TrEMBL record:
Pfam assignment, any one: DUF4440
Protein name, UniProt field: SgcJ/EcaC family oxidoreductase
All residue ranges annotated as the DUF4440 domain in the record: 9-112
InterPro entries: DUF4440, NTF2-like_dom_sf, Steroid_delta5-4_isomerase
Coiled-coil features, chain-numbered ranges: none
NCBIfam families given in the database record: SgcJ/EcaC family oxidoreductase
Source species of the chain: Micromonospora azadirachtae
Amino acid sequence: MTSTDTEIVRRVMDQWRSAVNAHDPERVASNFTDDAIFQGARPYSVGREGVAAYYAATTVGMSAAYEIRETRRLADDVVLGYLGVDFAFPDRPTLSVNLGVIVRRVGDRWLIAHYQVSQLG
């Protein structure tokens, strides 16, 4: 049985969310490819080290909740996901963003190869 595109994105993003909510930057980074392009709310980085540094600097107690809005299969080993994400903080209002990800199969795992946050409004 093959996974649907939505199931693939959900599996990857569930692992990402679990690590974000546990404030475990290294585990967050392990969900990305070695050469991932990462664009959060600050200047972009390339690779897992930049992802880990970004999440190490986030507020302890921050949590993420997401909703998958769309998925598209770009190639046999590549899936695009478009999500709405709410980042909740213990000391300020929730930040709602749009998130585009490209996940790529690397060996027997699906990993995030591109991560792009945007805020509208």
